[in-house]
Amino acid sequence: MKSITLIYDERLEEEVESKVLPLLENNVKIKIPYKNHKKYEFSEEDFIVCYLSDEQVRELFDVIIENHWKIGFLPHPKMTEARQGFGVSSKLDIAVENILNTEEVVEVDVLFANGQPVLNKLIIGSSFSLLYALDNDEFFFKKYLNRFKRFLNSFKRVKLHPYTINWSKDSGEMQSKPVDTAALGMVVVQHGQSSILSRRIIEDSYANDGMLHCLILAPKSIWEIIKFGFYSIFKSSKRSKLPDYVAHLKTDKVSISSNQPISYAIDEVLVSAKSIELEVQPKAIGIVPGTALSTNAQVKKTKVFKVQNLPQGELKNELLERYLPFTNHATTEEFKWLFTTLRENSKATSSYLVLMALSTIIATFGLFGDSSPVIIGAMILAPLMSPIISLAMGVLRQDDQLISRSFRTIGYGMAVGYLFAILITWFTPLNIMNGEISARIRPNLLDLGVAAASGIAGAYAHSKKEVAKTLAGVAIAVALVPPLAVSGVGFGWGDWSVFWGALLLLGTNLAGMVLAAALTFLFLGFSPFRLAKKGITISLFFVVLISTPLAFGFSKMVKENKIIQNLSGKEISVGILRDVKVIRVSPLKISITIVSESPLDINQLNEVKEDIEEELGQKIELELSVAVKL
User: Fold this and answer.
1) Which helix (H) or strand (E) covers residue 514, if one does?
2) How far apart are CA 372 and CA 374, in angstroms?
3) Are residues 301 and 201 in the same domain?
4) CA angle 516, 464, 217 (to 5 degrees)
5) Which of 76, 234, 436, 461 sees the fewest Cβ atoms within 10 Å?
6) Where, by residue number, does the polypeptide cross the bilayer (predicted)?
7) Tens digit of pLDDT for each residue in 409-429?
8) CA pair distance 92, 428, nearest whole angstrom
């Protein structure tokens, strides 16, 4: 039996009588309405249980600390912050059972902000609610619905704010040089169970370890917030990596100041100040820890200072001068490195022309030999990707010099390629339309998709030093030189359907890659949208223009595939249809092999044609081969 003193919210006296007291059974020595608690004097031996709102707990907190009360908490409907801060279950029966079955109280720490106790969390600035909202006890559907609503709030137009941050070092003294940075806001908790963000990235956190956790949110773009927000909607509560834009301080004292008033909220109560002094008072109160509160008798007071990703210096000033962009803006160093590289790549050097000649020669021989490995080798050797990526950047930033130089380089390369493809065709006594050649004279929307993906890969590879050398070959896989070689072969043959078909594929690859690469550079922050708008619009116009014949080609391919699917393996009166090939779509001409038990006469062959026309619902020209089972 426990001797409990119950301090309760008199506004809920009926609920106390009907729900709380029956669960506590005969363990209640006295029950006291909150408004009368000052009339009583409690000793350190008394065990007090509170059924109070957050506001009432906060008013009582100084007295609890001063008098060293042994205390337990029950989940009052309006006690959300204290319930989370002390790990109390939202279910009354579980909370009561925990209090009755726990033999000893545990001394836990209390976080203070400018002398005010923090029951659960302190939010500084415009930190997105998505990252610190609580939903442990919500129903499944409601939890994910609320997360999605908070995710949509991530699209707000926001600015970072200047902060000067100092903290206690390992010796206990404050740093000699504070950090000047720009941040969206901060989440400060005494232990790691107070928010979605802290639950996932704070490890080895206990309510009695003498430490606070300050999570500093310093994103460089809205996209960084949305990315983590989307991840938070569906991710379970398992530990995850600290987002790159979140700095983490684990220490006992933190000082935060600004040249602007700092808006912050202590447990949802709004306050404003020029500076905030955060400090943990170790083992300030003795409580019955809730079922979700982590304590440890042997805690390691290890401090953490992960602040290397905080924006400082020139980057900090850039971020403070404008609203947070949708995508990351490239740094000055990234700009200089990439533009130097792209300007060099836009030049028609002798090495570039030699590689164009060699790659075209290899591709042309590979086409005549119907050899895929040889053609792949030509793709890897071809240098056309570099000036195309330079062209994309020129289009994005409206750099006339970079555009003209890139166009000239691409033109010279194509001229060299055409020259060698035509010469080889004239001197090669082969005039056969094999699979490798025919595959490149009927482009469709799938080819545009390949070009777009390759443009993205090329732009990304060029913009990142760490992947520039490893992804260039992947970007070349769009196969720019093979369609150039096929077009040259068509010219050498005088076959204009081959020439124009391959040229259309080459134009598709070029237009798709330029647009995709320009959009990738825009997304990576190498140009503001107002500057990029004109170039993106022009590139989009050319892609839409070239998509018309591609859509027609794709439609033809879909029709051919549907015809082949309908007829392949179909049983008709005289046999089974095999090896279906569509020679021409309009008017429809098909080649089919029919497997029969015996040779077919002319009447039976006509029946086969009629059966196929009935199946397809249209007249056809038919090339029919008969295979007899033996």
Assistant:
1) helix 496-523
2) 5
3) yes
4) 100
5) 234
6) 352-369, 375-397, 409-429, 473-493, 499-524, 536-554
7) 999 999 999 999 999 999 888
8) 89
